[in-house]
Amino acid sequence: MAKNTERRRSTAVYTRQIKKEEQSGYVELPFEMPEGVEEIHVAYEFVSHGETKAVIDLGIRDGSRVRGWSGGARSEFRMARHAATPGYMPGPLEPGGWAVLHNAYKVPEEGCLVTVTIEFIYKTPRWLKGDLHTHSEHSDGSFTLEENAAIMESLGCDFIAMTDHNTISQNLAYPRHTNVLMIPGTEFTTNFGHSNFLGVTDPMDDFRVSGQADVEEKLRTARSRGAKIVLNHPHCDWCPWEWGFSVEHDWVEIWNGPWSARNARTLAWWQEQLAAGRRLAAVGGSDVHRPDPFVKHAMPCTWVWAESKTVESILAGIDRGHVLITYAPDGPFSELGCEAYRMGDVVPLAAKQREVLVRAEDLHSGDRVLLISDRGVERETVVAYEGSLEWKEASEGRLFLRVEIWRYFEEAGEMLLAALTNPLYFERLSEEG
């Protein structure tokens, strides 16, 4: 278990002598794109062999088309599934024959030497962090899409969902020149409750509803188009979810904005669901709309264990319950693991051992670390130092185990939730076979 996983990388260097007679022609420098690449960085330089300075342009192609061209304007670029340097197309980095492209615009009589360095960054399962509930000027927020992305990038976050109310225009205008992954989102907003539709650009054609049947139809439509459905702030004082909890949904937002009584009510409800045997993934979201002293981007911050930095991988990770929520991107961190199983997984009866490794890090003196099962609080540890905490816990007879970390915040003058994990579940006898 590791909060910061080192991504696997490899580097290849290619050289090509370009002769005077190749001037005004296009030169390809072929290379093989390996399997499992998530991102590439390409840089080049050229050395003239004579007094005349060479002018060599830069671009790239994949196995079927040109994917980008910057001429002589850039000496390097990056490409990933979700983003790329301007002039280059984001998208899949399929394995096979690729080539760096050069236009030999000017070549000295003596020729020149071009050196291209390609760094391959591979898909690496790791923790990614971000905000699943934000707003912009595309509904009732004041932030531009670019401002939202820039703030998230400054926080070191990996993804954002801009879930504007009953509109999809934000999904069609996402900024491309950012390291932050854009998860398409819409907040389905009714007079009796809100829910987020995540992962598809256009989850419904008309948001208007007049009753329960209409709501259920919208939810079915969104799901049929591939959206993941989150019930937002279901126990809010102003806009609770009043359409019932039997409607189609995938996850529940148990932490919305700063920790408050409404979040505590949803946390208690979720604990009841878990204790009754339901396996329901919990997420958080800031619900930020505009600059505010308390409601801020990635507060809370949702961490997802994902196979790669793609919309599909992040949503799949949440679906598996591989999720931790912290009050901020730099909040305390916690994990539970048993053999190869992590939170969200179900440890089978056939597992060789069902002892759970519990780990918490980035703790402050005075933090309270709670281990909770279907029976309630099983263990409470008051931390007397700065750092980390680790122990092994028996799981016999438990439906699940999860962790909460509580911290005293001077600004609020009280203990508030600082981190919360999704549960690690345990197979019961009735489930065997």
UniProtKB/TrEMBL annotation:
SUPFAM superfamilies: PHP domain-like (SSF89550). Residues 130-192 form the Polymerase/histidinol phosphatase N-terminal domain. It comes from the Bacteria. InterPro entries: PHP_domain, Pol/His_phosphatase_N, Pol/histidinol_Pase-like. This is CehA/McbA family metallohydrolase.
